[in-house]
Amino acid sequence: MARKINKAEHQAKRNKILDVTYQLIMTKGFGQMSVQNILDELDISRGAFFHYFRSKDDLLEPLIERMLDHIEQQVVPVVKSERSAVNKLQAFFNIVNETKTDQRQLFLQLIEVWYSDDNVLVRQKVRIQKIKRFEPLLRQVIVQGIEENSITGIKTEHTAEVVLCLLLDLSDAFASFLLTRKDDSLDLETKVFAYTQAIERIVGLPAHSLCLMDNETIQMWGEKEV
Prior knowledge:
The protein is mainly α.
C-alpha cells in the first residue's frame, strides 16, 4: 500500500526549501546559488530536495507564484471595498508596482533566467495562471465602472482579459528593458505612456486618468543594480 502523504507537512517542508532559496538568492544571487547550498542550509539529503523539486530552475515558478499570492492578497480587499471603480483600477496598478519595487533585488536576480529560452513554456504557463487569477477581479471592477457610468469604453465579457494582457505585455517590455539596457529610460517612459493610453481608451476613461508606472519609478528601475 502506498504511503499516504500528509499534505500540510509536505507543503511545510516545501515552503522551507523556498524560504531558504529566497535567502540564498538575496545573499549569493540565483546564478551563484547551488542546490548543494540549499541542502547545507537545511541539512537535508539530495533525495529529499528532489522529492519536492526537479532542479534548481524548478524553484522559479513557485517563487513567482509567491509574488502573485502577495499581489492577490492585497488586490482582493480593494476589489471588495467601497472605492470607485477607477480608484480600484489605479490601486491594482499601484499594488503590482509596489510589489515589484519592494522585491526589486529578487526580481533582478531572477529575470535573466526567467526570460531565458529554456523557460518559454513555464512563462507561458504562468501567464495563463495570471490571467485566471486576476481577470475575474478586474472584471468585477470594470462591471462596477459600467454601472457607475465611469467606464464607458468597450463593454464585452473579454474587456478585463484584454486589459490584463496589455499589462502582461508591458511587463515583458519592461523585462526586455532591464535585460538589454539598449532602450533608455525615456523610451520606456514612452512605452508606458502608450500602454496607459491604450487601456484608458479601451475602458473609456479620459486621458491621464490612470498611471501604470510613474516616471520616478521608471528612472529607479533604470539605475544600475546596487
